[in-house]
Give the backbone structure.
Amino acid sequence: MKRCVVGIRRPEMPGPTARRGTPTVWFPSMATMAAVLSEDNQALLQLIRDQRPKSLTELAELTGRQVPNLSRTLRMMESYGLVTLKKNVREIEPIALATSFKVLIN
């Protein structure tokens, strides 16, 4: 798992050209970034990386959280490219794509 570079960019701002060190995940505000990368969510990403649960039910048992609550959190994280939700026959397997972050602020 590689380190994820994150940045803040308002939707109306043009995106920078891709180059080394350019953020791969953009947040619209510091508040959004703080909510998405909260300590609880970072711990959730590390738990997914370390335990490799095969379903949201298994992840719920590991975390003590309800499946709908986890599903909302993971779908939001998936929209930022931090996790992928792999659909198997009857289950959804969460896969953490990043657990370490470098934040760039202008």
Q: What stands out?
A: Residues 8 and 51 are 31 Å apart (CA to CA). The domain at 4-104 is CATH 1.10.10.10 (Arc Repressor Mutant, subunit A).
